[in-house]
Every structure is written in C-alpha cells, then in structure tokens.
Write a structure and sequence with these properties.
11 helices, 323 residues, seven-stranded parallel β-sheet, Rossmann fold, single chain, 18% strand, alpha/beta, two-stranded parallel sheet, binds uridine-5'-diphosphate-4-deoxy-4-fluoro-alpha-D-galactose
C-alpha cells in the first residue's frame, strides 16, 4: 500500500495532521529530527528520525517505499529570530526544502503539500487577503516561504510536480482530545503566552503595541484552530489527486480578534485576570491580518469547524494544564 510521507510530522501542526490522516485510513510515515517535534506526538505512526539537512538521510527515507504524496511541515518559524539570524533561516528552510524536493522528484512523487504562511503577503494593501494579493514579505522567514513557493512553481513546470501551498494565518488551539498541543521553545505566540501568564509561568503577558490603527489599538489576527488546519491538509491531498493542478490557498477564517479581545475571552473563560504589561510594537508586526477563505471553500470544500475563539482557547488551555 502506498504511503504519505510527512516531514515535520512530530511538530505542532504536523502531528495534528498525521492524526487526521490516520483517522481517514492513510498509511503515514513521519520524517522528523525531533528538534521541535516530540516522539510521543507521533504515537504508533512509523517515525524516521532524520535531519532534512542530510541529503542522504532524506533519499534513504524514500528507498523501498511507495510514497504517493509528501507533506512538508518542517521549518523554523520565528519571525523575530529570522531578522537576527537570517542565514540560519535561509540555510535551513531553503536547504531542507530543496533536499526534500530532490528526493520527491527522483522518487517520481507527483503530489506535494507545503506549509506556507500569511507572511508571504507582507503588509496588506487590502483586507481580507485573497491569494491574488501581491506577495512582498517583510522578514526573512516570510521570504523563505515565498522562495519555496517559487521553486515549487518551477518544479511543476519542469517536472510535473503538482503542489498545494497552504498559507496559514494564526495557527492556534490544540487537539480537542488533549493529547497534542503547542510547545515551542521559546514560546512567542499570543495564546500560549496568555495561558503562561495566567498560570504564573511568566510574570505578565506583554502586549506588543497599543497604537495600531485598530478599534482598541492592539493588533488584529485571524486565529485558525490547528484541527481545522489538519482537516484542510487531508482535503488538499484529495484535491491534488482530483484536480491535478497546483494551487496557493489561504487557511484562515476571515474573522479577526485583537490582542485585547483574545485576552478578554481568556479572562471570561477562566474567570481570572490576565496580568498585562504594555510594550512597544514588535518589529514587523502589521496592524491587521485577515484571510479570505473563499478559495479554500471552493477548491477544498473546507470550512473551519473548531476556530471560534472559545474552542481555540479552551482546547489550548486543556493542553497547557497537562503540559
Ligand atoms: N502578541 C503579544 N504578546 C505576546 C505574543 C504576541 O502582544 O506575548 C501579539 C503580537 O504582537 C501579534 C499577535 O499577538 O499582534 C499575534 O502574535 P503571534 O506571535 O501569536 O502571531 P503572529 O501574528 O506574530 O505570527 C503568525 C505566525 C507566523 C507568521 C505570522 C504572519 O506565528 O509564523 O503569523 O503570518 F509568520
């Protein structure tokens, strides 16, 4: 039976997707160096511990297997760090993707799903962002995502590789059954940091900027539940097989919440006050990021099911309490 190879399948979004793929009956093999991923997130799915920087290890993973499609989640993801250490980001995010794609082409695999980001758009000229919005990243992290998208287009033209590049907005929440969740080190994301402030793991939540041109002055983001992202990947796999053409697709809800609104919802759900400290804007943060979800609905038949703020915070909280 053919398999789906998931690079970065032990990480946050990868592990939720592996769980969803398995639930739909796919045979999955995970390739992960466990630098950010966790062995226990993979459970009984086959795991190859390997580094995508190691060309030979990547090629070896394809040998003797019938791989029908590859999903590529493995990536460095910290926008701020990418400013400070761009060579780390270009080095890893590009070389790992090139190594993986080489193995994909040589093995004759024709279906590829890439974890891209809203960061490819840069500063929004219109909102919500649709997929035809110009791409102009404002940080090295976003550039690495856009460069891989460019490479994918050339590989489609030259080698017939069909891909779907999924541009995530703000991935958040945790598996409703409480077995998977977010654990980045260091943690930079808003909702985990709110939970950390609530449980005393950090003194206060630092709010980066209250002078944005938004109703309450804090930045607005489109939070999308990680289980909805996972479902979208399974749908994308089906769509690739059906359509046999490449696509760029946003994954967001077209509903935004400001930092203060997220804090207020966390306070309502926990009945506790989040200690807050105001800070200047974080470099590269834009005022509002909202996704048009029309294309995802049309091409994938996808609709977010878990992405209301209450479910996002509740599932993240359940995970945080266990962690
Ligand atoms: N924020 C705070 N305090 C915190 C953490 C975040 O005020 O402790 C604010 C940020 O300034 C931002 C919002 O909360 O306004 C959301 O921040 P996150 O770090 O959770 O997410 P970002 O929107 O900065 O980043 C996400 C992804 C990136 C991606 C980016 C743009 O995590 O990978 O969207 O698409 F590049």
């Amino acid at each position: 039976m053919s398999q789906i190879l998931v690079a970065g399948g032990a990480g946050y979004i990868g592990s939720h997707t592996v769980k969803e793929l398995r639930a739909r009956g796919y045979d999955v093999v995970v390739f992960d160096d466990l630098s950010n991923g966790r062995r226990d997130f993979v459970r009984d799915t086959e795991l190859i511990v390997g580094d995508l920087m190691d060309r030979e290890a990547v090629r070896a993973a394809f040998r003797g297997r019938d791989i029908a499609a590859v999903l590529h989640f493995a990536s460095l993801i910290q926008v701020g760090e990418s400013y400070v250490h761009p060579r780390k980001y270009y080095g890893r995010n590009l070389v790992t993707s090139l190594n993986l794609l080489d193995a994909v082409i040589d093995a004759g695999v024709q279906a590829f799903i890439f974890s891209s980001s809203a960061a490819v758009y840069g500063i929004p000229r219109r909102t919500p962002l649709d997929e035809d919005h110009p791409t102009a990243p404002i940080n090295p992290y976003g550039w690495t995502k856009l460069m891989v998208e460019r490479i994918l287009q050339d590989y489609d033209r030259a080698y017939g590789l069909k891909f779907i590049s999924l541009r995530y907005f703000n991935a958040s929440g945790a598996d409703p059954d409480g077995t998977l969740g977010e654990c980045h080190n260091p943690e930079t994301h808003l909702i985990p940091n709110i939970l950390r402030a609530l449980s005393g793991w950090q003194e206060a939540l630092e709010i980066y900027g209250e002078d944005f041109p938004t109703p309450d002055g804090t930045a607005v983001r489109d939070y999308i539940h990680v289980s909805d992202l996972a479902i979208a990947h399974v749908l994308a796999l089906g769509a690739l097989g059906r359509l046999r053409r490449s696509e760029f697709i946003n994954l967001g809800t077209n509903r935004g919440y400001s930092v203060r609104e997220v804090v207020a919802e966390a306070e309502r759900l926990t009945g506790r006050k989040v200690p807050v400290r105001m800070r200047p804007r974080r470099e590269g943060d834009v005022p509002v990021l909202l996704a048009s979800k029309e294309k995802a609905e049309k091409v994938l038949g996808w609709a977010p099911r878990y992405s209301d703020l209450e479910t996002i915070i509740e599932t993240a909280r359940r995970w945080h309490e266990k962690a």
